[in-house]
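YM 10:42: Phosphoglycerate mutase sequence, as discussed on the call
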Amino acid sequence: MSSLLASKSNVTVHTSWSPPVSSCVHVRDKIPRHRGKPISKCCTGYSTLPSEGKASVSNGVIQSNSRRQVLLGSIISLAASTACAPASASLVQFPASKLQNRYILVRAGESYEDLNNGRIARNPAFKTSQSCGLTRNGVKQVLGLTVPAVESLGVAEDLAWIWPSIWQSSYMTAEIIAYELGLGRSQIVPEYSFLDARGLGAYEGGETALVAQQVGEFDALDSLWRPLKGEDGTPHESLQDVLVRVRQVMSICETQYRGDNIILVAPDSDVLSVLQAAALGVDLRQHTRFSLPPGGVRELTLALEPYDASPRQLSCPNPPSCVV
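YM 10:58: structure's back
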């Protein structure tokens, strides 16, 4: 191995190649070694010694003129100076005063459950069945009401993603919207559970209008109320259970996208009205204020006040009698 003797510093410097980042080695410092080769302490990151026998000594610093080293050093320095934005992920907190994306809430067009003589069909085992799909009138609703409403919000002008439940009526609605707005199928992101219709347990198979009335009366009393458990495996969910699901899908979207338009398509109104009530900080027992008819569209409205994460303090001189 060839070597170069620096006369003033009395240090022998090997000219073999080492991992390149910069081309300077301060020979007056104690030089650590890597694989038997000197490595500089004066430079940030790795350093290199002169290669190909081209070097000079100036003020105790060995300078390299190797083109390879200069080029590689420049590339690595450029990469090191390019800072990436830190990734972040967290659960969306309600009420929400600021979100990274814009959200459009869409209820699927009329399904067979929504007919006057319709029956509750919320068992997820059959959600991809044609019996849970759009009626002919439902298709007309999406074309005549839903698509124009979405277009009026300017969604088609910017990048948009459609997140439909894989419930048959929701996915059919999403496909129609995508086709009419000129969005590619790659922009349809199927959601497999978080946007499903609210499970109503023992009410499964009941008359739609009658069940809606009874469930609404119980919901108005307690957001934790759950329908009785059925025998066919249909979930029986409270409003709080639905809130857990919509919080999950919002958190995923907020982590995955930034500055985009996201269209959420759900098969029933409860999922969307609970989300809107939570975003505004409204008592979930009043979620029906934000109900959507089949084919209805609403932009998610945010709260004026941000979520308060500070600890709550209650004045209670005689606990637990004063704690409700």
